[in-house]
Amino acid sequence: MANPLVRSTVQEILRKRVSLRQYAERPIKDEDKKAIIEAAMRAPTAGNMMMYSMIIVSDQDLKQRLSETCDHQPFIAKAPLVIVFFADLQRWFDYYNDSGVKEFCNDQGMDFTGPDEADLLLASSDALIAAQNTVISAEALGIGSCYIGDIMENYETHKELFNLSPYVFPISMLCYGYYSEGERPKPRERFDSQFIVSENKYNRLTEKEREAMFSHRAKGFNPQNSIGAKNIGQWIYARKTGADFSAEMARSVRIAMNHWRGESLVHHEGGIMCTKCL
Ligand SMILES: Cc1cc2nc3c(=O)[nH]c(=O)nc-3n(C[C@H](O)[C@H](O)[C@H](O)COP(=O)(O)O)c2cc1C
């Protein structure tokens, strides 16, 4: 039976959560860190395969470096806890190698396929669901957090910094820290659910609906802005989708995909690898 107290507490946590970028200057207690990690371990995971890895960044120099490689966001270096989440097929393909799966497939007339784009999307889902579990667990402990999507940039640098194997892709990073005493930023507004949720069929919005959807954000638009944007759509495109960081992310992900998608798999002393990784 649903417990009304738990239900209202969870709803309250979800309602009050904000992305926190300024943290109380105290370390995360060990027991809280343990609870956060446990929350990740208990996340739903495709096929119960846990196709993700997490790296806790405790080295201050590494945090500093990440604050630069992730689109120059200084608060990363000040976060008491930083965890990077990776889509990870490496351990599965290493284990398949250990288990003679390729030979088995040959004998059985089955294809032996490498991790493909679908595996990457599934592993990314796994990693992000685990990440979000940590966000909610942290909130319940009075710890705020902020995702850093820019970890997808500069793939080559991050691969080296973390000593990444070929089938490991950094899909997101999270910074965590306690809320400062009495400090609770106001939750940010969302688009109305009528524009996001539909029933049974996809709802492509009409121009009128799009206008209604953006009307609130358009109110905050400054026509005297520094980049010559004439409306909120132009402004957001320039600041987000068309910004330099997005171009870098696109370049970086393309390289990582090539790396991931090696046409053929070969046996190598490090395990099964794509030809492009050798
Ligand atoms: C995938 C993802 C990537 C994000 N990347 C960043 C980031 O690099 N830097 C940052 O300050 N916030 C980042 N955020 C936080 C968003 O800016 C934030 O969730 C959004 O503005 C809504 O605010 P709220 O979380 O406080 O409701 C990211 C959020 C998500 C889900």
In short:
The protein has 278 residues and is of the alpha+beta class. Helix content is 45%, strand content 14%. It has a domain at 4-188: NADH Oxidase (3-Layer(aba) Sandwich).
Walk me through this protein's architecture.
The protein is an alpha+beta fold and about 280 residues long. The protein has a domain at about 5-190: NADH Oxidase, CATH 3.40.109.10. It is built from eleven helices and six strands. The strands form two sheets. A four-stranded antiparallel beta sheet has the order 1-2-4-3, with helices on both faces. It is globular and about 65 Å long. The chain starts with a helix and ends with a strand. Flavin mononucleotide binds near residues 146 and 149.
Task: Summarize the SSE layout with pairings.
Blueprint: H1 4-16, H2 30-41, E1 52-56, H3 60-69, H4 75-78, E2 81-88, H5 90-98, H6 101-108, H7 117-140, E3 143-148, H8 155-161, E4 168-178, H9 207-219, H10 232-239, H11 244-260, E5 265-268, E6 271-274
Antiparallel strand pairs: 1-2, 2-4, 3-4, 5-6
Helix pairs in contact: 2-7
This protein binds flavin mononucleotide.
Residues 18-19, 21, 73, 146-150, 172, 188 line the site of flavin mononucleotide.
